[in-house]
Amino acid sequence: MKQDYEDAFRLVLPRRSYVVVRIDGRGFHTFARDLERPYSRRLADALDQAAMLLCQEMIGCRFAYGQSDEYSFLLTDFEKENAPLWFDGNVQKIVSVSASLFTGRFNRIFNGDAIAAFDSRVLVVSQRAEVKKYFLWRQLDASANSLNMLASAHYPHAELVGKSNAEKHELLFAKGVNWAKQAPDFKRGRVVRRSAGSDAWEVDLTIPVFGRDAAYLDALLP
Ligand SMILES: Nc1nc2c(ncn2[C@@H]2O[C@H](COP(=O)(O)OP(=O)(O)O)[C@@H](O)[C@H]2O)c(=O)[nH]1
Ligand SMILES: [Mg+2]
């Protein structure tokens, strides 16, 4: 049974690569409908707590970056000879256990009426420069999401369709709202990383714009 059926779907990650695991809330457009707009601290805090648990649990986790309803985790196994890879790189284990741990912790902390679900996917990136680009890409998405959330808290959807980012900034300005003055983590996202000189994990709520301060990601990436 194992050979004929289970092993046929056994997919294993290559060794000594950068591995990204991304968790994303399922249907959060609906789940978050009644939450604080434009930005919910309750939602962000529960996501951060769930991400901290995964950072502790995932072997080889270096840091995690989160925004909106998602968190991306970077895993590596090449800093030491014979460093282990989480679940020996078994993809089905990695995606299912990461999603279930994250989902369990999130729901316990968030303590809502509806059950939130999260999907998980795994990506393999061979080049360090491409890993940087991946996190730049997620942060660009964070800023775009953040502006859209702010704009839709002040204008009906119909008035925003087809508007450029510059036009959204102007519309907000007309109501005395300035996106630049929002909390830094709601504009740029958050990072879970090891505290300096300790094994404990902490959330950094004041991360820079990755594209402007290259040193920040550089220090996090092996
Ligand atoms: N009210 C509120 N909603 C949020 C917040 N952060 C994320 N969301 C919602 O979460 C959705 C996440 O987008 P996405 O993953 O693309 O859509 P999904 O497929 O519906 O989960 C956004 O469209 C928002 O509706 C927040 O801070 N407050
Ligand atoms: Mg989602």
How does this structure look, described?
The protein is of the alpha+beta class and 222 residues long. The protein has one domain (11-140, 186-220): tRNA(His) guanylyltransferase (Thg1) (Alpha-Beta Plaits, 2-Layer Sandwich). It is 45% helix and 17% strand. It has a six-stranded antiparallel sheet with strand order 4-1-3-2-5-6, sandwiched between helices. The longest helix is centred in the middle third of the chain and has 27 residues, at 128-154. The chain is globular. The model has no long low-confidence stretch (mean pLDDT 96). Bound molecules: guanosine-5'-diphosphate and magnesium ion (MG). Guanosine-5'-diphosphate (GDP) binds next to strand 1 and helix 2.
List descriptors:
single chain; 222 residues; alpha+beta; 9 helices; 6 strands; globular
SSE blueprint:
Blueprint: H1 2-6, E1 18-25, H2 28-31, H3 41-57, E2 61-67, E3 70-75, H4 91-110, E4 118-125, H5 128-154, H6 157-160, H7 165-174, H8 184-188, E5 190-194, E6 201-204, H9 214-220
Antiparallel strand pairs: 1-3, 1-4, 2-3, 2-5, 5-6
Helix pairs in contact: 3-4, 5-7
The protein binds guanosine-5'-diphosphate and magnesium ion.
Guanosine-5'-diphosphate is lined by residues 24-25, 27-29, 32, 35-37, 39-40, 43, 68-69.
Offer a concise description of the structure:
The chain is built from nine helices and six strands. By secondary structure, the chain is of the alpha+beta class.
Strand order of the largest sheet: 4-1-3-2-5-6
Distance between the termini: 40 Å
**SSE succession:** HEHHEEHEHHHHEEH
Full CATH superfamily name: tRNA(His) guanylyltransferase (Thg1)
Low-confidence parts, pLDDT < 50 over ≥5 residues? none
Number of strands: 6
